[in-house]
Amino acid sequence: MFWSGILAWLAHYKYVLIFFLTLVQGPVVMTMSGFLLRLGTVDFLPVYIVLMAADLTGDCIWYAIGYYYARPFARKYGHFIGLTENALAKTEHVFQKYHNRILFLSKITMGFGFALVVLVTAGMTRVPFKKYFAFNALGEIIWTGFLLAIGYFYGNVYLTINKDLRWLSLGVFIVILLGIFYGLNRFLKMREMQDQL
């Protein structure tokens, strides 16, 4: 009775739950939503819109943090990490010149491990919000569709597996998915650090 009530609640509020989970861990939730789409648990258009809305909401939050708080924070504490006024000026110059490309590529490549830095920097350098939102939304259409497709493809594989092994394969898929995103993020950060040396 208890579990059936929980399941009924989850089924009723699934899109609300997906929205808030996407704010926390977008790529994983997007991929799992593709899997749920293949199983018929969610519908394509609502889940696509909810995933995009959640991820873009997160982008707007990071932009606001950059806009209102990044520069004062950098001026006060930047010297602890070698972030000088000169470095800030150079960053602002580069970002103002290439922000269209930077925003679009950051969105469709998960920021090469630096997505949050890009989003905060966009706010800090006062990229016009309409332009910021437009380029992020354009990249979001591609990124969300790509991750949904990966999850949907796994859903096809999952449905062909013996019923006794489905839960095991689902667990393995989630672990592999988390491992890929974590490993890619670490690899790109390490590579960036090596390039700076």
What do you see in this structure?
By secondary structure, the chain is mainly α. The chain has one domain. About 85% of the residues lie in helices and about 0% in strands. It has seven helices and no strands. The longest helix has about 35 residues. It is elongated. The relative contact order is 0.13. The model has no long low-confidence stretch (mean pLDDT about 80).
Based on secondary structure, the structural category is: mainly alpha
Element-by-element helix/strand order: HHHHHHH
- Average pLDDT metric: 79
Helicity level, as a percent range? over 70%
| Main beta-sheet annotation | none
Morphology: elongated
Which residue ranges are poorly predicted, with pLDDT under 50 across at least 5 consecutive positions? none
Number of strands: 0
Individual helix count: 7
Beta-strand residue fraction = under 5%
Distance N to C terminus: 60 Å
How many structural domains does the protein architecture include? 1
| CA radius of gyration | 20 Å
Which keywords apply here?
7 helices; 197 residues; mainly alpha; elongated
